[in-house]
Amino acid sequence: MEIKKFILKKPYLIAGPCSAESKEQLLAIAKSVEGTADVFRAGIWKPRTKPNSFEGIGKKALEWMKVVKQESSLKVATEVATAKHVELCLKSGIDMLWIGARTTVNPFYVQEIAEALKGVDIPIFVKNPIHPELGLWMGAFERLDKVGIKQLAAIHRGFYSYEKSVFRNDPKWELPIKLRKEVRDLPIICDASHIAGKATLIEDIAQTAMDINLDGLMIETHNNPHLALSDAEQQITPESLKNIMQNLVLRDTKLRDKQFKEQLLNFRNQIDTFDKNIINLLNNRKGVVEQIANFKHENRLTIFQIERWFEILNTRKENAKFLALDEQMVEEIFTLIHKYSILTQTNIMRK
Ligand code: PEP
Ligand code: MN
Questions:
Q1: What are phi and psi of 54, to 5 degrees?
Q2: CB 213: neighbour CB atoms within 10 A?
Q3: N or C: which end of the chain has fewer CB within 10 A?
Q4: Which SS3 state, helix, strand or coil, does residue 95 take?
Q5: Phi, psi (deg, nearest 5) at residue 162
Q6: pLDDT digits (tens, 9 = 90+) for 51-82
Q7: Which domains does the chain have, with CATH numbers?
Q8: HSE-up (13 A, CA, CB side) for residue 166
Q9: For a pocket test of ligand 1, which of 102, 128, 131 has the largest count of ligand atoms closer than 8 A to its C-beta?
Q10: pTM as predicted
Q11: Is ligand 1 within 6 A of the CB of residue 43?
């Protein structure tokens, strides 16, 4: 994949409201992020999870983006989801476009957008698909590459997850790192707002993005976040944006440092997976313990049988010894597991 470098500064900053709401709003925000941001963002067509939410101003807002472009030093960018959007944006002289997370998941849409961009030489950003699949993200770049787009960049906006988390979208930092390994020259921008879901987490996420050497940030910025018509909780004021950017620590990006950070993250991700597996196994084990309890109850057996407990302890310690694991540790862990297994059974018997 041939990539033409268009991001010449680090961190490259894309800032502006989630949605364009009025010409005055856009101009006011643009004026206050001028000097901090490189690109002004505003969503015009908003993909909303539920109908009856604010779905964006539509093409009328393209006129307002033109005014921002004329009256500031900022480049302007917006999200496109269809070939028609591309056509309208190109006519209005929008400098850069991004494909949203809900669009990257659909190869038909990505292909349609790619074809509408044939022969066009402007930067195109692709957000990761909603779910953590590197193939689809890569596929979108390949489709754009095939029609000759050279100014390409990725936006990491986190991934939908069923699990409860402090983040709106799980960052899964290992994915942008994998993407970087697949396409070395592809710049990666971190959309800290959509990962965070709330303003207070943005700074931390932005710092992590810098620590793993991503190229820039997208931060939703609004002159009055509480009154924003979409994503109100994850937008910050231009003043906070300035503070965050000033506080960012840009560490040594020498190869050794970068490799160290990536490796550390890789190790931590492995530990996270193991721990998740341990919890799942404990839960599965508990399911069987409950079945045993019912079985013992029906057959009038006592819960605690000393021979069985010794057998558990000895076999687990033998397993540990075989693997050169600390036997004492294994004994302590199984004593605890056994304690709770007795508790589970007693609770069931009492019912
Ligand atoms: C947005 O940038 O406002 C947006 C809708 O983002 P995403 O596609 O990441 O959900
Ligand atoms: Mn948004």
A1: -65, 115
A2: 19
A3: C
A4: coil
A5: -75, -25
A6: 888 999 999 999 999 999 999 999 999 999 99
A7: 12-247 (3.20.20.70), 258-350 (1.20.59.10)
A8: 6
A9: 102
A10: 0.76
A11: yes
